[in-house]
Structures are given as C-alpha cells and as structure tokens.
Amino acid sequence: LLPTIGTVNSNALKKVNKNVRFHKEDYLSIPSSFLSFLLGFIDGDEYIHSVLNIGKITIYKDNRSPTCKLIINKTDLQEVLFPLLLHHNLFFLTETRNNQFNTAMLILEQDIKRFDNIPNIIGFTMAEGSFFIKSNNDGCFQLKQRIHTSLFESFKLVFNTDRKIDIEKNMYNQFSVSSKNDIQTVINFFSFSGLHPLVGLKGISYLK
Predict the structure, then answer these.
(1) Which residue of 53, 59, 106, 116 sits 20 to 30 Å from the alpha carbon of 68, by its own alpha carbon?
(2) Separation of alpha carbons 36 and 30, rounded Å
(3) How far apart are CA 39 and CA 106, in angstroms?
(4) How many whole angstroms from its chain centre is CA 35?
(5) DSSP one-letter string for 65-102
(6) Fold of 117-207
(7) What is the distance between the alpha carbons of residues 165 and 173, in angstroms, rounded to a whole number?
(8) What is the pTM (predicted TM-score) of this model?
(9) Domain boundaries, the chain
C-alpha cells in the first residue's frame, strides 16, 4: 500500500477525491514508465490528467501562447503522486527540480507551516552555524553539517537565496552566504523576525 507523506488535514480528503485513501492500491497499476515521463513533463495535459485521475486542468487562453496546466493539490501529492514516485524509485533529471522535490518532501514530512520553522534554525545555528569576516572584509554566515540535502535546500527558501549548497568530502553539506543582500536577509531573520535570540558565543559572534 502506498504510504502517506506527512500529515494530511482531517478535512482535506473530504474536500477533494474522497476515495483516494481507500483505493490507493489502484494507483500502483499506473506504469512506472508513465511516471518517469511525467517527471520530464512538468506542465501536464489532458492525457496526464486522464491517467492520474487527480488534479485540475486549468486552461490559459492566449492567442499568442495558449497554455494548459495540471494543478495537483497538496493532499493528492501526499496521498498519491509523491508516494508513487518513491514506490518506483523515480527522480527528476535536473538538479533544480530534484532539490525542489526534496524540499517539498521535508515540508510535508515534518508538517512545516512556516519557513522559519525549518527546523529550529536558531538552535541549529547555535550548534552548527558560524558568523565571521572574510579576508576581503565581507561578512559571512555559514551552516555546516553531515549531508542532509533537503534540509539544506530549505535554508535557501528561508534566506531567499539561490546560492548553491556545497558538498565537502561527500560527507558534509555547507550553506554559505556573504553578498550584501544575503547578509541583510540574514540580519532581518535573526534580528527582526520575533524568534528567540542567539545566545552564548554564537550570539556574540553575530553581534560583532
């Protein structure tokens, strides 16, 4: 039986396809070759919709560039699509889409409602973070820990940056920002978001 990703709101299944949870085994009949095709064809069309039997087709009528999008709600992602991808061990081919999928999985599995809860970033920073001045006098904020790709990709959402996550010695992920805009975002997060302040040595190094 397909698992459920994260916690599904008790009212969500009532609003969408009521039979999704009770007939999830039927979705296992969808060929993995189709799901693989789906990963390479993000927007979707009527054929994808007819096979999956989930989501809603939205047509944007534009004489110059008409488009058609398949929009799949959170509950169907949790109950059907994401579990199917995991069941067949399928993944996106591009790093960007794969990172987006990993971030979505983290948010669903940990039932995250706000980006500043990914996870307790204040505590995580006090344990694994550092603030320092580079040789060119630029300020730098850095987080480093054993590899956890989806967690570190989520930091990019929190701090609104597209900086690449580094991997060191195939053992550690490192998130590091130093541009003026990125550092201002870091300051806004730690100083003005209403979270518990940094304390101890990390608090001192941040204030410096």
Answers:
(1) 106
(2) 11
(3) 19
(4) 20
(5) S-EEEEE--HHHIIIIIHHHHHHTT---SSHHHHHHHH
(6) Endonuclease I-creI (3.10.28)
(7) 7
(8) 0.50
(9) 24-72, 117-207
